[in-house]
Amino acid sequence: MHGNDAQLLVLTVLADGPLHGYAINIAVEELTGRRLGPGSLYGALSRLEARGLIQPAAAAPGPERYRTMQITGAGRDALRCELEQMARVSRAGLRALGISPA
Predict the structure, then answer these.
(1) Distance CA 78, CA 53 (A)
(2) Nearest-angstrom CA–CA distance, 17 and 4
(3) pLDDT for residue 63 is more than 80
(4) DSSP 23
(5) Which of 3, 28, 53, 73 gives the lowest tally of CB atoms within 10 Å of its CB?
């Protein structure tokens, strides 16, 4: 899975509420049928946090895999923009295939 895809999936599942790394991966699996590899998951978390799109939900000490993360306002805005763009592309693709978009 591409890094940007992993980031989009992480933002999507965190939009429902704060989760820790393992729970994020379970939610991604429920959504897509596949889990992210550890490098993809923790790389996405690191990049999203560095960009200010997610943040720790509580200042809990310990390894990153146990930190509960939450989406920020900027993360919600970025997710909305990305999903709106994907929806436009999807509608155009469906029309091109002769399928009426819902």
Answers:
(1) 8
(2) 20
(3) no
(4) H
(5) 73
